């Protein structure tokens, strides 16, 4: 119960004392600023949230939810805000989609007053608190709160109800390549695999991620393969002393790891960062 209360702190802070689920219509009173009211709303008047942080919807689960709604109705109201003659969804898209499939004409909803930015903030918080989001969706939700609302990791920790270390580890997943992030989103590899891949060079990480999927390797299998070097790697030319010294000097100057990949005067200079705060610091130091 304590964990559930902690997860709800962020939404409670944004919504104030929003009324509990109550599908019966009540006599409406004049709304005070930042208050919320509950009512039955025509589904046809609700448009989806353009800021929805969830990118993947499991159609099978939505159909299962629709079956439940046919039998028991919508237990928990969705959250909307007034927009023109209709409403815009803030949170509860799975319930809204399932209600449409179930053939409902109306749905219980809490109507709140929220600006565009507040609507986005609530939508992200509501989604990252759900346990059925994949790890990448959660990490992107955290990153949007940092980028668009200037949340610090401490504020994220307080709002979401998770340790700061958990927030930091989640954000680190976004430093993986797009291919690996796609594998995580598709449940092809686990967050446990991803944490190991974070410690590898980019090309090797992708090679091992592919191997994990093809051979259905467990996290322990991956650890063992890396320890015993039970995989094919390309032989790299050893770095010269000048390259090593230059990498060290640049890393010290920028405060981030710098890698130089040189091949006969051509190559890549790679600067690693694990948050947009670190990136801003790097840009400031090189005066771009």
Using the coordinates above, name the CATH class of the largest domain. Alpha Beta
Strand-residue proportion: 5-15%
Low-confidence runs? 1-7, 13-34
Number of domains: 3
Quaternary structure state of the chains depicted: single chain
Largest sheet: 5 strands, mixed
Broad shape:
elongated
What is the correct CATH architecture of the largest domain?
Answer: Alpha-Beta Complex
Q: SS-based structural class? A: alpha/beta
Number of helices: 14
Write down how many β-strands occur, each being a DSSP E stretch of 2 or more residues: 7
SSE succession: HHEEHEEHEHHHHHHHHHEEH
Rg, alpha carbons:
24 Å
Give the N-to-C terminal Cα separation.
49 Å
CATH fold category name of the largest domain: Conserved hypothetical protein from pyrococcus furiosus pfu- 392566-001, ParB domain
Q: How do the strands line up in the largest sheet?
A: 1-5-3-4-2
Pfam family, one: HTH_ParB
GO molecular function, one term: DNA binding
Function: Involved in chromosome partition. Localize to both poles of the predivisional cell following completion of DNA replication. Binds to the DNA origin of replication.
Keywords: Chromosome partition, DNA-binding
